[in-house]
Amino acid sequence: MEKLEAVSDLVVRQRKELTEIITGFETKNTYSIEDVHGQQLYVAAEASGSIVIRILLRSLRPFTIGIFSGTNDTMLLKITRSFRWYFHHVEVKDHQDQLLGVIERQFSMLNRKYLVSQGVGREDYYIESPILSPWTFYIKNSDGVEQGKITKKWGGLVKETISNADDFGVTWPAQWDKSLKSLVLGAVFLIDFIYFENRGHR
User: Fold this and answer.
1) Which residue(s) pair with 99 in the sheet?
2) C-alpha–C-alpha distance, residues 101 and 176, integer Å
3) Using one digit for the tens of pLDDT, what is the confidence trace for 9-39?
4) 178 in a domain, yes or no?
5) DSSP letter (8 states) at residue 72
6) Other beta carbons within 10 Å of 197
7) Does residue 122 fall inside a structural domain?
């Protein structure tokens, strides 16, 4: 994920097939990961899974999302979600299948809060979304200092009404290492599934 090294801003765009928009039948999610100038850096795709599980569990379904360079089929990053009702959890692994860290929902009465854990000996981060700001998720260090944010972008009335395709803006310190950036990128897909997957006519 070397392209992330000098990047401080990303746009993650969900791509929807025309048949899904028309019929409402859920197909596997695909995304374009771009810089702020619209240049595609990576593509992400949800692996095929059980249609029955997809229909029954919808946004709660377990998933594996692979991130690719777009020029070949080598998976650079793997994001895996297991099934949980509330304490949602994803693991992020690199191209060698080494665990980079996990994102896990924490119990909170007043906001939506996720722990971003890089493992023993490395700083934990948190992603929090206040009740009154449901489309913005703030990235904070262990001292509570804001480091960046993940923002759901308004796609226009027609798109928001008929489709659950989503665009997200991501900002973080440019000096963060690519492993931490990759881990936070994994959180974008979890957030999309949990909070925005079932919008529209579904």
Assistant:
1) 93
2) 15
3) 999 998 865 444 443 545 678 899 999 888 9
4) yes
5) S
6) 19
7) no
What distance in Å separates the CA atoms of residue 163 and residue 77, rounded to the nearest whole number? 27
- Residue 70's pLDDT is 74
Q: Model confidence over 138-178: pLDDT tens digits?
A: 999 999 999 999 999 865 444 444 444 579 999 999 999 99
What does pTM read for this prediction?
Answer: 0.82
**How many domains in the chain?**
1
Chain centre distance of CA 51: 22
Q: Classify residue 71: in a domain, yes or no.
A: yes
Which among 16, 21, 50, 14 is positioned nearest to 162, based on CA atoms? 21
pLDDT in tens, 45-88: 988 766 767 677 777 788 899 999 876 678 899 999 988 788 89
Q: Whole domain around residue 32: which residue ranges? A: 2-100+150-196
Residue 147 and residue 151: Cα distance in Å, rounded?
Answer: 13
Helix or strand (DSSP H, E) at 161:
helix 157-162
What residue ranges in the chain does DSSP mark as E strands? 9-15, 30-34, 40-46, 63-68, 75-81, 89-94, 99-106, 111-117, 125-130, 136-141, 146-153, 167-171
Asked if residue 155 belongs to a domain, the reply is yes
Q: Are strands 99-106 and 9-15 parallel, antiparallel or unpaired?
A: unpaired
Query: DSSP for 94-148?
Result: ETT--EEEEEEEE--SSEEEEEEE--TTS--EEEEEETT-TTEEEEEETTS-EEE
